[in-house]
């Protein structure tokens, strides 16, 4: 049980202010469907951190960190362009529960690849040689940080015009994408 708390605290601290927390806020405000967004975050974290715990160092050898950084950075720039394209629309199209869940799941799963929370999970699993308690703690840490963020986006996102929300989303995605690409270059 001690391993659970170590993983919980480590991942919670690593996730505060992380790019995925900003994406949780944006997706929640955009979709106005907190439960599918939370489910997407939970299952993506479970899958990603489960892979990290099982794979440990092997996962990091599969793709170089630089390649992962480039893919994530370019993905964010693509999301920024997509958000800008949607800002030109007067009214946002209706969003299905499936769309909110799938988008959240895919984004979170990909964004966590090579992220500090995934690396922390892999290191803890390798150090403690336990799968269940490390994954349970790391996924709980992700939810401790992102659940309030999703609810905040849900409560206050509807007070922002869809056009402004899309532009702010595009700005956040572009900034994160450029930051990841610059970090990859350095």
From TrEMBL:
GO terms for molecular function: metal ion transmembrane transporter activity. Keywords: Membrane, Transmembrane, Transmembrane helix. Belongs to the GDT1 family. It is a multi-pass membrane protein. The chain crosses the membrane at residues 38-60, 67-84, 96-113, 125-144, 164-185. Its main location: membrane. The keyword Transmembrane applies. It is found in: Membrane. PANTHER family: TRANSMEMBRANE PROTEIN 165, TRANSMEMBRANE PROTEIN HTP-1 RELATED. This is GDT1 family protein. Pfam families: GDT1. GO terms for cellular component: membrane. It comes from the Bacteria.
């Amino acid at each position: 049980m001690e391993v659970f708390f170590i993983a919980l605290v480590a991942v919670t601290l690593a996730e505060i202010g992380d790019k995925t927390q900003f994406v949780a806020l944006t997706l929640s405000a955009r979709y106005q469907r907190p439960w599918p967004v939370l489910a997407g975050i939970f299952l993506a974290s479970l899958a990603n951190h489960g892979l990290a715990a099982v794979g440990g160092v092997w996962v990091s050898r599969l793709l170089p960190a630089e390649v992962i950084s480039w893919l994530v950075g370019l993905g964010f720039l693509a999301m920024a362009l997509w958000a800008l394209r949607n800002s030109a629309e007067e009214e946002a199209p209706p969003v299905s529960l499936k769309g909110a869940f799938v988008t959240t799941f895919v984004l979170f799963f990909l964004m966590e690849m090579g992220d500090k929370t995934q690396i922390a999970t892999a290191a803890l699993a390798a150090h403690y040689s336990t799968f269940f308690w490390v994954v349970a703690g790391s996924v709980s840490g992700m939810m401790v940080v992102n659940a309030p963020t999703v609810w905040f986006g849900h409560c206050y996102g509807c007070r922002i015009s869809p056009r402004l929300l899309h532009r702010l989303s595009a700005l956040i995605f572009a900034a994160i994408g450029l930051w990841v690409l610059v970090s990859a270059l350095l």
